[in-house]
Amino acid sequence: MNKTVLFFLIPIFFSQNITSQNRKIIDVHFHTRSAGDYGKIPPPNPITGKAPKAETNDMILNSNIALLKEYNVVKAICSGTLKRNADFISKDPSRFISSLEYPDHQNNSLPDTLAFKKLCEEHKISAFGELGLQYEGEVLSDKKYEPYLSICEKFGIPVAVHTGIAAPNTPYTCCPNFKIEAGKPLLLEPVLLKHPKLKVQLMHMGYPFLEETKALMVIFPQVYVDVSAVDWLVPKEEFYSYLKALITAGFEDRIMYGSDQMIWEDGISLSIKTVEEAPFLNDAQKDKIFYKNASKFFNIQ
Ligand SMILES: [Zn+2]
After folding, report:
1. Which of 53, 101, 158, 287 yields a CA-CA distance of 20 to 30 A from 254?
2. Taking the mean position of all CA atoms in its chain, how far away is CA 5?
3. Hey, what domains does the chain have and what are their CATH numbers?
4. Which residues form a coiled coil (predicted)?
5. Beta strands in the chain (DSSP E)
6. Centroid of ligand 1 to alpha carbon of 43 (angstroms)
7. How far is the CA of 149 from the centre of ligand 1 (A)?
């Protein structure tokens, strides 16, 4: 599937001055992209208008690592193919944690369940996602994913699911099977009922389905959210309003920072700056969102 996952294309502009608090950060939604994943000439960043500078696989690798170091992102959960994740891990082993993305940009099929179990047993993957099933109009409760979820539950492997929406025109461009309905957080309820020990990461914080996200988080304490993409691709006040609602509802211990930088390196700095500048978050809450919550969810020491 040659999908171009441009999450939201809303032309708003952020200031370029970055607030550096030197806070320790874990990025739970980082993509290990390859050259060509978004076409021969990748589109510019929809927010800044900047074209991605890195043109080769090595350039992508090096520019991402340089940015993560600059912003003190000490760990990144890599969502990508096993092969591309291995490139990142071999270059900077202590920074990257491998997570199996599905579907991916190379149209790889899922490994069979025996191979998948081996990947978990041998710690070749520490998370399962991003699962962009919504782009195929599919849901995680489909029975074909059931054996994979049982394995994840058994080995304590978190499952990271794309929820919410996507870029304007998604069904008319990359993904004719895309369904808004398939991104609703409550569709995860049957999975959580069947797998009470399964850790689930609601990618993009279920945005814009706030009520469903809150309901799921109240009933199922094993559900965490990441703020990725929403933290730099939607209007800032809209993001703040949604994030504040989750904080007010009492979930500050289960919200995790993510960039979802895709091919735009500057997505990392934009997203960090937006969370850092949230006027309603105190310092302790920022420490939780940027590091502590993810450290607990992914067992990072
Ligand atoms: Zn996503």
Report:
1. 101
2. 12
3. 25-297 (3.20.20.140)
4. none
5. 25-31, 73-80, 96-102, 127-131, 159-162, 200-203, 223-226, 255-256
6. 18
7. 19
